[in-house]
Amino acid sequence: MAMLCGVQWDYSSDSPLLSRTATILATNGTANQTWVGGDANYNAAMPFGGMGRCGLTIDGTVMNRYGDGCYLDTDPTTHKMVCVPAFYSYVDYYPTASHVNFYISDVPTSITLEGGGSATTSLNPAFTSGGLNVPYLYIGAFEAYYMGGILTSLADVQPTTLTAGGANFSITAARTYAEANGDGWELMTAQTLSMLQLLLIVEYARFDFCTAISQGISNLGEQTNRTGGCNTGHTKVLGNVTGAVGFTSDNVVSPDVELETEAVSYRGIENLWGNVMQFIDGINIAPDSINYSVWVNTTNARPFSSTAHDGDQYKNTGQALINGIIDYDITSFDFSQAAYNWLFIPEIAEYLSLRTQYVCGGVSTSALTAQILLHGGYWPSWAAGVGPFYLDYRSTATYSHYKHAGARIQYMGV
Asked: Are both 260 and 389 inside the same structural domain?
């Protein structure tokens, strides 16, 4: 049977909690108002129940899956990825009541709009590349690691941040090594990040994921205390289950302020926030007279560029990103552009003493120069609002050779 799941956000409130609104039409016939993130109901519903780790070859063949006797997170012969089945979504922005209604479904489904009328959920933009639709998207289960001229996803290695292939590790270098895997291989894109953010808020009906799941690896000392991020693979024991695993931090140069930390995993995707920040491809920020303009690769396909603002492949979304702030707390997003309201672009932010209000995510922008996006926060970012909505727009395309800037790969076979 079809599945429809929805939540409503009242952005006039400082509460990080959302209301569950839509009815699940599933085999058990229950309403999702009574569901809890990570419970058996979501595990049985698509796309949530279809998410899981697998070993993927460079030609897109799934060789094995978590739970198979032959699956190992440490096996370097395949990329360790998380499969996400395609799904349909809709964002109903209703500013009259200061509401945003988020919906996902497993098939095109009619919904009633809050302001009147109806609409139908459509394929989420993450599952379209170059005008072609894909039934699955594969996301690196672990942060990217440079090995033999490519970026891979593998457990028990230190995420690549400083150099790769003898060169500084910028978004340009990361893109080159991700795409070196072959057709369909990319860095994680803005469409993919927004899709994961949507899944999280619909499943958990909240923004405070550091409370609901874990703050992740975000409580350790500054850069001089470490060689880089902690090793991948600390959540091997979790497999496809959402949660966190505590451990004593590795890759220490001098004693950290706090040695004990924990790695977080969302349905098999380890360290989506915390540990090292990740370059997000397909989104560029350009200065205008007041704020930033946001430019997105609407094809979600190659060629990717970190400097394109051409109006052709990279189009201006019409959303205005606030500028000149550091570690402010996001209080609302710009959903005013219907064609791009799948993007979570910060519209308003305040400096708050607590990280438990509104979106529970920090945002930083810099002077009015062209920028890229780094996501998630890194090992000392707890005080800066680490989480799935931590967004850092302060870096240029040549930003490199820093211990905290890494990547994550994805595969879209078309």
From this structure: no
